[in-house]
Amino acid sequence: MLPEFKIAQLRHFVWVAELKGFHAAAEKAHRTQPAISLSIRDLETKLGEALFEKRNAKTAKTDLTPFGQLFLPKARELIAHHDRIAEDMTLLSEHKKGHLRLASVPSIASRVLPELLLRFVADSPDLHISFFDDNSAAVLRMVENEQVDFGIASLFHEEEHSDKSFIPIWEDQVGVVCPQDHPLADKAGVHWKELRQHRLISNGTSALLEDSEARPLLGHSQFYISNMISLIAMLEAGFGITTLPWYAFPKESSTLSFVPLTNPTILRHTGIVKLGNKSLTPPAQALVDFILANSAQ
């Protein structure tokens, strides 16, 4: 039967060899000298060979046996391998190493996540992150297909997603987005029926209207644009108007206005979506915990 080495015993052996004495090794290990001697004797028993020559009482000099000289580089190699694995797993458990994959709706991806992610990775230079942004339906598909560790999205019709867990974090109101010179731009609020008089563009967030009085607007839309950059460009060009949650509105825009939809009032809840029967990797769980601890409405 092969001997089973204890890392502590290997360290004691290397320290005695390098420091040329049991007393110095004991000080380094914060142990008593008899404890170090016992550790070495146990290691020698496992190996079936002496590691050190019999000590000279006059000089207290500690010399390796020929077998000990051969075993020393092997012991160093075992310790280094152990320490590399221990360090890797510690870094992984502390979310400082590994590969994290997440997906988010564009509104949260652009308005909220940059600052959060910058702070999260500040002390984790070896953590790799793959980030995808798309509408809620696409984010949910990526979660289902395990392409990402978790997603940030709105969970429409929660009863249809019994395989997922949802933690709501952000809440925003749906409004009308239009050019600043549009007839609706100066209103304090708008009724959904008023939108019928204008060219309406639907988008990935239009599903928020489905379970409200404003549902007929979905059939009224002449155009559908899925990409947020293209949608904003069309709005700025005066092509039409659209409905968007507040976080999806480009806050730096100098050409567009956001007018709350007040009849009906529609709120969007966005949060963490993950598979309900699977644990997250340590980096992913750490990011979820970080988002929960640092996200205030």
Report how far apart the termini are. 62 Å
Portion of residues within helices = 25-40%
**Mind telling me the CATH superfamily name of the largest domain?**
Periplasmic binding protein-like II
Structural class: alpha/beta
Could you say how many structural domains there are in total? Answer: 3
Rounded Rg: 32 Å
**With helices defined by DSSP (H or I, 4 residues minimum), what is the helix count?**
10
Largest sheet: 10 strands, mixed
- Into which percentage range does the β-strand content fall? 15-25%
By CATH, the architecture of the largest domain is named 3-Layer(aba) Sandwich
Give the number of DSSP strands: 10
CATH topology of the largest domain: D-Maltodextrin-Binding Protein, domain 2
Low-pLDDT windows of residues = none
Text of the CATH class of the largest domain: Alpha Beta
Element-level helix/strand string: HHHHEHHEHEEEEHEHEEEH
The whole-number mean of residue pLDDT values reads 90
Cα shape: rod-shaped
